[in-house]
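Appendix B. One record, verbatim.
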Amino acid sequence: MKKILALLLFTAVTMMSMNAQQSITGTIIDTDGIPLIGANVLVKGTTIGTIADIDGTYTLDVPAGSQVIVYSYTGYITQEVTLGSSNVIDIVLETNAQLIDEVLVVGYKTQSKPLSNVATQVVSSATIESRPNASFVQTLQGQVAGLNITTSSGQPGANSTINLRGISSINGNTEPLFIMDGTPIDEDNFRSLNPNEIESVSVLKDAGATAIYGNRGANGVIVIKTKRGSYNSGLKFKYSTLFSRSSRQDHDYNLLGSQDLLRLEQKYGNGRGTMITEDSISRVVGTDWLDFFFRNPITQQHNLSVSAGGDLFNSYINFGYTNQEGILKASGLKRYNLRTNLSGRSADDKFNFALNVSLNFSSSDEPNNVGTGAVNRNFLLGAYIGLPYISIDEYVGPGPLLDVADFSATPLVLYDRLLTYDRFEKEIKTIASLNGSYKFTDELIFSSTVGMDFTDQNRTTAEGPTSYNALLFAEDGNRTPGFQSQSNTRVFSYNWLNSLSYNKSFNDLHNFELAVYTEYFKAYYDFFSYAANGLDPRTFYPGDGSGFVADNASNDFFVDEASANILRAGLFSYFSSFDYDYNSKFGLGVTLRRDASFRFSESNRWGTFYSVSGRYNLDQEAFMANSPFDMLKLRGSYGTTGNQRIVDSGGFLNYFGGPDLTRNLFATSAGYRGQNSLILSQIGNLTLKWETVTQSNIGIDFEIFRSKLRGSFDYYVKTTNDLFQDRPISAINAQTDIDANIGSLRNSGYDINLEYDVLTSSNGLDVELFFNTNYNKQKIIDLPTPDGRLVGATTVTREGSILNEYYLYRYVGINPANGNLLFLDGAGNITESPSPDTDEEGDRVYSGKNIYPDFFGSFGTRINYKGTFLELQFNYTSGVYRFDYDYADIMDPTFIGQFRVSGDILRAWENEGDITDVPSLYATNLALDSDSDRFLQDADYVRLRFIRFGYKVPKRLLTNGIESLSISANAENLFTWSGWRGYDPESAVNGVRRYPTPKVISLGLEVEF
């Protein structure tokens, strides 16, 4: 009987215990509604847990007495949920801005960092927003190993040159493909877009990540994801503002002041100095034209975002306003932005959709002729070398300037242009995408994304009828000169992507995904412009037509001009991807893509591209259990990508360059005895095709010492075959070359990225150091010319060497006997007259130098202490050589009397036996220095690119519904250490009198409620 009672009691207790245990189920997704495969579900305080399966669902038996469930996923904010009466708990995890680099965009999908096979790096919104750059690309500078970004102009919103892992084409496009929320966008025009709308930027580097983009992925891919709302979240507001003051960077040219310059002119025998006495010279004050044409303007930015979300719908809206004046007068940018991102899902979570719309308007004042020698049009020429003893008080109108026979009045002419010339661009830019997905089963999902990029730009240029330039070029008898032109450019492109993916897991060990895709791209370009010659000063107003003067029968002064153009572009692709994972330890990825481009003939239109990638997570092995490595992954990839943009047109013509190179073309020209005739203008090449980049990559990702030290190392080799170049042909048809695919080049090198937590929560103090670098080596493998060389004015591209290598005379000093320049001939002997021949028998030599860096990257620190934060980012570049043409100008003795010159010219040779580094002002071979390395300078630099210091108010001190509040002071380009003497060592071109990038100091405020 006792045994029976004991058995009954045991059974009752067991049943009570079983009844006390609670079983919960649900789904775990991100804010876009994407299932988070492998997300962790854990009973707090225990080791009891599970992971989400392939469609994000989970089931967990919770023991009696447990109250809190912890939901976590790498790269997302961990959530804790207190158990209630419901057995169904659905979770939406939000991206953690501090850990966003743990979630990577790989091709057309996302993966957690441990499961990624490829070389990719993510930059979060924390390092993009609240910066004074009008273009977000400038903010990326130095943040990604291997991504070289140079900006050659300080114009607000100026285009930057972007190259990933070297230059992969000689004549074609060399910049990455940019994709925003699934929409390909123009990589040369970001000035109308608002950086504060961006959530993250993913840079895809190797073939494993880019081959799935086919003939658009040769130069890498940059994927931009904008901010979104969250499901089941309340109404949130965020306001940020930034006020900035800009100033120009310094130079080290030792420019002569007014009095010293007048004395030099007196000695040289040219200029105003020859006409006034020493007593008059000593009283001259003059004008610093640098301070006159430049300014220290104020920029303001404002952003207000609103987000909210229910169970089936969420939204994010952002309003932005920017008003940025340039440091150069007559330059600036004003911008208005509105973004609306909406997401929704069905109650059964089978259907998900997202709508992204960005509406933007900008008005930009952009001086033209910058970087040229136009003394009557380039404001920088007046600023840099305008005679300082010329006073602004000498300007009494354009008429008297016409009587000046030399260039001494240049600053006054350019001041007149400031008053009478207008050039502004108004741009409407819209980027939108709509994507939806439907889950037929837990394993089978169909997705479709339609995106469009629309730009409408109207440019107005007007030269007033009373301006110096209008009067200078007016015909005899023309009393109403001047002109106004307007051009309208409209570019519309759309991209339609469809995919069907199948996911499957076996025994919780084997996971694979197979996806097939189709993609269609179409672009339209429409251009129209007019130029109205003749303006009536009584009724003229820039942009208005009331002052136009009509053409008449008595003269041809007022004949107006018009032009128009229509271009189209199209691509079609189908492709697939396969991914396999074994127990989070081994991974394999394969992609295959077929592309057709409008640029090539039907017989050669299709190209095939592929990649294979793999990984080995050594940290998952048992033998690594006691090692210092928290994560150690080996990965590798090999594959091909294409570049069908074989002509680098730039600007709005990016999509449309070289559309008919496969055709024979004819042009109208003067023929026999001047008769109107047709001539052969182009010989088509039906075999023309895309350039192909084959890339191999080996990488290591690691975390050690409890993840205090984190980093990655990648070694790559990129070989471009079928380079687009001119192949010499017989001149029998009056054509000496034909467009062809011939030749190859190679880029090889490595990327290193390191982060180290020096201190972590030590008495509230966190200190992190970071460093990244890229080393890249170029090699030309094959060229189409008989001698394997392409020779330019000062450069050569030759087999076995680097791209655009400087090919120059070697300057060695000054002849103490006569003050002439001395050079080395080809044999190393000193000469005053090196051979002008450009063949290998001449005296020019290969320098081994070019304008592209060998090393570049950044380093810095992030420090936080009880709400006070400090961030420092230093950028550096090594191995860049550029011509300092600005210095060459101010060392030119022919400038004396017409322009400002450097005080270095006072060291010029004068008497036999003088030992100096400056030639005689009357040297007979001065013209040769332009073909020598005399003014070729090392442009390496280290720059304090960004510094931020601020304070985040503790939440306990906030009231009235304020969730967070922070204030900060920022500075960009504050200090630069370089041997470069000019205004800015950063540039991707050899130029003269260019617009330098400014120093910027900012104050910011950010509040959330």
